[in-house]
Structure formats: C-alpha cells, structure tokens
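Known limitations

Structure tokens in this collection are predictions and should be treated as such. Users comparing against experimental data should check residue numbering before alignment. To illustrate the layout, the record for HEAT repeat domain-containing protein is reproduced below. The input appears on top and the generated tokens appear beneath it.
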Amino acid sequence: MTSWLRAQLAPDAWSWLATQRERLEGGSASGREFNLAVSLVPRRLGKADLVLDGAALAEADRARPGWDPRGWSVDQAGRLVLLLAGGGTGRVFAERLRQLLVTADIAETIAFHRGLPLYPDPELVEPRAREGVRSAMQPVFEAVAHRNPYPAEYFVEDAWNQMVVKALFIGSTLAPIQGLDRRANQALARMLCDYARERRAAGRPVSPELWRCVGPHANDAALEDLAVALDSADPAERDAAAAALATCDRPRARALLERTMAR
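Generated tokens:
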C-alpha cells in the first residue's frame, strides 16, 4: 500500500504518513499517540479514491491471495498502513483493533474491516469480522463480505451461511463474495430455499443470485423450488434456475432442464 500512496499523495502528505509510520514502528508511541495519528489520517491525506491500475491489483493479489483493494480511498489505506505499523501482533494487535472499533466512526469502521485479510494472526480477529457482518449498516457489512477473502477462509459454516443470507435480506449482492461457490453447502441451500418461499408468499421478488448456491446441493424440496423458479415472470430468475440445475447431477434436475429446453 505504501508504494501506491507514495505515487498518489502530495509530497507533504506522504512525508507526514511516512514519518508517522516510522515513529509507530519503533514501538515507543503511546496508545494516545497511536490513536491520534490514525484519527488525523483523513485530514492529512484527504479522502480521494485510491488509484489502482491492473499492475497494482496484480501486486495486491501476489502479496496476499484474494486481496482486492478496489473501491478503497487513500485515507482508508493510510489508516491501515499505520495500524499495521503500530498495532503489534497476536493478542496485542487483536485488542488494539477491538479498541479502535469501539470508538470508530463509520469511515474508520469500514477501513478496519476492509483490512481483515492483511492482519497478523488472522484467526484472533475473527470476532471483529463477525461483528462487521452483524452490523445494521450495509457499507460496514459489505466491507467484510465483499471482495474480501477473510470470510471464506475463517468463518465456520454457520457464520458463513448467515452472512450469505443476510446479504440477500439487506438488498446486497452475492457476486462480490469471494469463495461463494466453494463454500456452498446443504444447510445454506435449505436456508436460501426457505427464504425464497417466504419472499414468494409475501408477493415479493426473489433474487436470481440465490439459486447459484442451491443447485449443487439441491434435494427433492429444493428441486421443486427450482421448478417454480423456472416458471418465474423474471427472465433473470429463469436463467439463474436453469444454470443452477445444470450443476446438479440428480435425474430430476436433468428432467427439469430438458423440459425447459423443449419449450
């Protein structure tokens, strides 16, 4: 991140960030000094979008597989530079992150959750990630759930499933969730079918995206739900249901697909 920031920031802004990072790396700064430096980042660096070309994104993925900093701002990256410099490791880092999140405003909260893939001893910050996806604020939820490899790598199945269902419940999208196909499971398929039935019973539309997680694990009840989706008035849902059926090896799924192609 430092090379990207150095290329984009004005000289005085970069000089301030580099000085703060060096001071914090020494370990002599107090907690108050650390918190003050982090809080000053937007004022010193501004809030412009972080400019990243294809080479920078490839560099990010090499540095940490799955790391996707698209959509970040310079102040978010700057906060993380200082946190990684002065946050320590292990339980010391986990506690410092917890304390920062207690008093963080929404911009800081988003930044700290976007940094999850970069933190040392990542299993120790899992409670903070769980808090992020429980947030009532969609931008905070998406800071954890979208373009972030952390949930797929560290969430247990129940936490993963709840995150996917919540994305649909709050009107977010599933496509930016990394590991969505790899982490699909039977329990999630049942939850999504239940959700789809509730939506239909209330006369509300069903997101075509949810069928992607159902097809590979469809049981008889789920296949009936997919049959209903094939008759949806929404062409996108019909297409999504057909695509989901193509991933299921059950004879009933093949029969439904053949019926669809014969129309």
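For this record: The chain has a mean pLDDT of 94. Residues 186-201 form the longest helix (16 residues). Please report discrepancies through the issue tracker.
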